[in-house]
């Protein structure tokens, strides 16, 4: 009974920190961002590659738009207190670790909403284009696979959140966004093709999506004869390994960034 009470108090405490963190951004662009950007991604895919609409909608999201959206989200959440050099929170009689946890959890929630909004837009767009405009799609993923794709895009992106918030604290939000986007574009597609892709987290999501969406990191159908295709890319066990390692990366970045953040108070 005592153990239950302690666990309950910890959970309740974190929920209060999360609520307080959320209130800081009630009148910012975060709400619009998590709906607008998936809508833009869906619209661009429908207009530019309509025969590959669903496949490219997801591919463009996790390869290009999500790293940028996530970096902007983390820049806002990690950079708001930084404008006052974190003095406004360091002066509080509060648990700095839980403040850091709340920032990460809020970012994860916003990224999750944005990713599942993309799935809803793609499903609606598919229905409209197929039944209203009589478009025939090439390599269309099933509804079940699209649900799995949204879920694993979200899960395998967790590691980026503590990494980006930490980087925003160290370099400032703008430079963090530039660094993260450059790294994601350079390493994302390239590393995902390697057998050791799970050792560089930028390559994990594109690799995991290969067997789920039957799509290569370059956006082409995962079929023999396509550029960069190899049978190994379609391995479900390799994708599962990637998911497991992405969570390990997340745990490592969360632990060390949290420890660093708490240490700033002691040094200050």
Structure description:
The protein has 268 residues and is mainly alpha-helical. It is built from ten helices and no strands. α5 (96-132) runs antiparallel to α6 and α9 (204-213) packs antiparallel against α10 (236-267). The longest helix is centred in the middle third of the chain and has 37 residues, at 96-132. It starts with a helix and ends with a helix. The model is unreliable at 1-11 (pLDDT under 50).
Q: Any key phrases for this structure?
A:
268 residues; mainly alpha; 10 helices; disordered N terminus
Can you describe this structure in just a few lines?
By secondary structure, the chain is mostly helical. The chain is built from ten helices and no strands.
Kindly provide the radius of gyration, computed on alpha-carbon positions and rounded to a whole number of angstroms.
20 Å
Structural class: mainly alpha
Beta-strand content estimate? under 5%
How would you characterize the largest beta sheet?
none
Q: What general outline do the C-alpha atoms trace? A: globular
Low-confidence stretches: 1-11
Percent helix range: over 70%
Which H/E pattern describes the elements? HHHHHHHHHH
Number of H/I helices: 10
Question: How far apart are the termini?
Answer: 39 Å
Number of strands: 0
How confident is the prediction overall: mean pLDDT? Answer: 87
List the helices and strands and how they pair.
Elements: H1 2-23, H2 30-48, H3 53-79, H4 87-90, H5 96-132, H6 143-155, H7 160-171, H8 173-192, H9 204-213, H10 236-267
Helix pairs in contact: 1-5, 2-3, 2-5, 3-5, 3-7, 3-8, 3-9, 5-6, 5-10, 6-9, 7-8, 7-10, 8-9, 9-10
